[in-house]
Amino acid sequence: MSLNNDWLFKQGRILSLVENDPNTEDFEKIRIPHNMVDVPLSGFDHHRQETIGTYVKEMDDIEVPKHHELHINFGGVMTRTEVFWNENQLGVHEGGYIPFSFKVPNEFINDHNRLTVFVDGREIPNIPPFGGVVDYLPYSGIYREVELAVLPTPHIKHMKIKTKEINEKKHDKMVLESEIACDMASLFPLQAHMTLRHDNSTVIEKTFTCNHNTCSFSMEAGPIERWTLDHPHLYDLTLRLEKNGQHIDEVTKRFGFRTAHFSEDGFFLNGDKIKLIGLTRHQSYPYVGYAMPSSMQRRDADRLKYELGCNIVRTSHYMQSDHFIDRCDEIGLLVFEEIPGWQHIGDEHFKSLTYENLRVMIDHHFNHPSIVLWGVRINESADDHAFYVKTNELAHQLDDTRQTAGVRNFAGSERLEDVYTMNDFSHTGSNAGLMKKHRVTQKDVPYLVTEHNGHMFPVKKFDPESKRKEQALRHANVLEAAFAYEGIAGAIGWCMLRVGDQPVGLLGDQVH
Predict the structure, then answer these.
(1) pLDDT at 508 over 50
(2) In degrees to the nearest 10, what's the CA dihedral of 128, 132, 134, 137?
């Protein structure tokens, strides 16, 4: 149930709302997504974003049926969030780029309910990506959607769909892993009914027995249509739980049949070699900061593929909107998604939040066929052996179907990830487009260039044509170098920006 409309907002941490005075007469009426500070197109003080705000949502007639529980889900809040239901604190969340959820105990629910959210939008040093210098702004506020969810007990907590090629005819085996949230072991066994659909037509149906909280099933599902860049075929898989014929819970997830692999010779999708051309994307917009609705999130994916000629996007430098990733699935745009951070590695609390960021990112976006790489390293950070051994181990534990990568900005860095990724800004217009692969990696490994150009030769839309042409040629030189060497999977430029309503990037008027 959407909770995006009819909120109240006021600058500051208004503690009286959860203590003794529910007065909200001087609050502003707003809706979610929301930025706590309006953002001018240019010439503003970034310190104005570092503010604290209070959000209030009034709710009546909330009914939670017997054997059900109420959860409140946040898509993303920047930076630190305290959530209260009436006078009761539900919890605190630290970090601005991942979704989170709190359970609302039944005894907290009244005939009239007040949801109060305190948002600290400051740069807090031990919360990624902060603690050092960061080259992007944390636009504060509840900038992604909020919803209530009434869930049965037990309910399906996670549903991970894996596809594997099992013969030369390219029919596939589908493996389903599902974690059942259940504190009532006496309910087991449960019957699990799986239905696979494509274009609203049933492809296959199976029934299995679930005896434990984590259940794994597998079935062969060929012949199928592959998810490709030109024809991104998508399937729906529904998992329905029953006990003695009584419906308990049902979840439907969308996915695609495809294989994706980086090797020393390049990138292969469904066994076909593809040279990757892409841009990195920040989720910020003029005027509203991070608080853009689904329509514009989806439009950015279209622009990257259809206007800027990309077949891959790197999410710099954090998990991004479900709407954006959904659209990448639909149009056949590959995604390299990474954890929050920029050069700085903080204390143990910072690292523990990084592990949680990685876990949520992989669990939440597991079933998206567009995602082909998990970024498990703080962007452009120094080598940290123990830290990055753990992030790689965690990623492989959570997802044994995708490779890992870690973006660095210096050659010879320790490689713990499956794919060596590097920001190469060596091109100056008259020299080689890229550094030699072996100079960077020092051995023959999977290799992808993850940033190039951009701020090395900044161009404004009012600059003379000769200067804008030079900028475009520099991009072309880098891409030519990537295409000339079989061992480079491709090159992702820095970066996609917006000027007003116009996308700019690979060959646009302005590149930041």
Answers:
(1) no
(2) 70
User: E strands of 182-311, at which residues?
Assistant: 190-198, 201-210, 214-220, 235-243, 246-255, 260-263, 266-269, 272-274, 276-281
Identify the DSSP state of 25. Answer: T
What is the spatial distance between Cα 322 and Cα 71, in angstroms, rounded to a whole number? 19
> Distance (Å, rounded) from C-alpha 75 to C-alpha 165?
34
Segments in 303-384 forming alpha helices (H) = 322-331, 348-365
**Tens digits of per-residue pLDDT, 35-89?**
999 887 777 777 888 899 999 999 998 989 988 999 999 999 999 999 999 999 9
Structure tokens at 249: 């819970």
Catalytic residue among 94, 356, 380, 417: 380
Tens digits of residue pLDDT in 187-226: 788 898 989 999 888 888 989 888 888 888 888 777 788 9
Contacts of residue 84, defined as CB under 8 A and 6 or more positions apart, other chains included, come to 17, 18, 90, 114, 115, 116, 117, 118
Residues 34, 318: Cα–Cα separation, whole Å:
19
What residues have CB less than 8 Å from 200, skipping those under 6 apart?
A: none
CA distance 453 to 474: 7
Among candidate residues 145, 337, 356, 451, the one labeled active-site is 451
225 carries an active-site annotation: no
250 annotated active-site:
no
257, amino acid identity: F
- Answer whether 256's CB lies under 8 Å from 224's CB: no
Residue with tokens 């495809």: 258
- Please tell me the distance from the alpha carbon of residue 502 to that of residue 461, in angstroms, as a whole number: 11
What is the three-state SS of 110-152?
CCEEEEEEEEECCCCCCCCCCCCCCCCCCCCEECCCEEEEEEE
Backbone angles phi, psi at 405, to 5 degrees: -145, 160
